[in-house]
Amino acid sequence: MVVETQIRRFDSIELESGVVIAPVDVAYETYGALNAERSNAILLVHAFSGDAHAGGVDKDGQKGWWENMIGPGKGFDTNKYFVICSNVLGGCKGSTGPISIHAATGKRYGMTFPVITIGDMVRLQKMLIDSMGVRRLLSVAGGSMGGMQVLEWAVKYPEAVASAIPIASTARHSAQQIAFNEVGRQAIMADPDWNGGDYYDGKPPARGLSVARMVGHITYMSDASMREKFGRRLREDNGIFEVESYLRYRGSQFVDRFDANSYLYITKAMDLFDLGQGAQSLVLALPKSRTRFLVISFTSDWLYPSYQSLEIVSALRRRNQDVAYIELTSNYGHDAFLVTVEEQAELIGGFLTRTIKEASRV
User: Fold this and answer.
1) Among the listed residues 74, 103, 72, 85, the one whose alpha carbon sits nearest the alpha carbon of residue 4
2) Residue 277's pLDDT is what?
3) Nearest CA to 172 among 267, 92, 274?
4) Is 173 a catalytic residue?
5) Quick check: 27 pLDDT over 80?
6) C-alpha–C-alpha distance, residues 125 and 142, integer Å
7) Is 24 helix (H, G, I), strand (E, B) or coil?
8) Catalytic option among 46, 53, 173, 334
9) Pairing with 192, which of 128, 217, 278, 339 sits 20 to 30 Å away (CA)?
10) pTM value surpassing 0.85
11) Are 242 and 230 in contact (CB under 8 A)?
12) Quick check: 295 and 323 in contact, CB under 8 A?
């Protein structure tokens, strides 16, 4: 399935801060077909470093980041569902972000780009979905930062979401999670080539961004998966540990596809996210709605540990929401949501089938 990323432009978007971005672009891809009733649409929302290319292969032969879950007969079965994925606001793969040209100045935004939130990202997604004529999504699903967006959708637009699937995620970052993100941000800003974010006409802060990605990638894996994959093995060609070589490769690869300023803005949006903020508790922040929930976590995920998913489940149950929870066994750490496919596909496929049946009774 060869797919092409599309761009939709809107006149403007008003952020939660009150700042207006005009115009604003959103990059997106679709898979499958929208039915006549426009009732089979599913929005997939990506994790921190993802983009709109979730399924199929692009013109360069690059597989989507969740290609093993999207397609005929897969977890998100494109014989049944119309699947949508968009690049988040603040990203660097087609949606408006720091790398974009500011219409008023004719220059790239850089660090003049306004602070964004998970809520702002979801607001742009809602504008995209509305423009497609979809009044109610069958489901919104995503892992990690994607799970934050799922929860934001369920709180801000409950009547537009029949079901929600937050995977390996949280209602708010812990101090440890914020700390890891701050190390990455400081690595970028300490790079002399960052130049206060004004590097687009020169040399990008490749060393800082590479180190930020290396730190982040450590948190995505588990001790068991790293031990199994690398151990203490040394490379024969240069005498460095295999894990060192792997991290350096991951860091350099990331520099080729991601913008350093987007790293700063998106990680800050994740840290600022707090679903219960402004309410007395997470329970009171959740609206009573007909939205059904499937919450998934993984045993070896120490970046977004299962207790954070259980906090969400507990709050939903106290609101008498329809919620199912499963902790899947995996040694892959946080990356499990991208790797542990068979069980996820079975769970999600069954959940979506039941959601359609429930929706038909309403």
Assistant:
1) 85
2) 86
3) 274
4) no
5) yes
6) 13
7) strand
8) 334
9) 217
10) yes
11) yes
12) yes
Q: 235 and 245 in contact (C-beta within 8 Å)? A: yes
One of 77, 120, 259, 301 is an active-site residue; which one?
301
Question: For the chain, which domains are there?
Answer: 6-172+274-361 (3.40.50.1820), 176-270 (1.10.1740.110)
Rounded Cα–Cα distance for residues 182 and 268 (Å): 8
Nearest Cα residue to 171 out of 276, 272, 88, 283: 276
The chain-wide mean pLDDT, for the chain, equals 96
Which residue has tokens 């891809």?
A: 29
Output the six-digit token pair for 131.
């423009």
Instruction: Tell me whether strands 70-71 and 82-86 are parallel, antiparallel or unpaired.
Output: unpaired
Three-class secondary structure of residue 221 per DSSP? coil
pLDDT score at 1: 73
Contact 220, 302 (CB under 8 A): no
User: How big is the chain by its Cα radius of gyration, in Å?
Assistant: 20
Does position 279 have pLDDT exceeding 80, yes or no? no
Percent of the chain with pLDDT over 70: 99
As a whole number of Å, the end-to-end CA separation of the chain is 35
Token reading at 26: 């959103």
Is-catalytic flag, 301?
yes
Helix axes 260-272, 118-131, angle to 10 degrees: 100
Average pLDDT over residues 242-257: 96
Q: Of the listed 86, 95, 139, 144, which one is catalytic?
A: 144
pLDDT band at residue 358 using 50, 70 and 90 as cut-offs? confident
Mark whether 334 is an active-site residue: yes
Q: Which are the contacts of 62, defined by CB distance < 8 A and separation ≥ 6? A: 53
Which is more confidently placed, 94 or 239?
A: 94
pLDDT for residue 362 is more than 60: no
What phi and psi, each to the nearest 5 degrees, are found at residue 236?
-70, -30
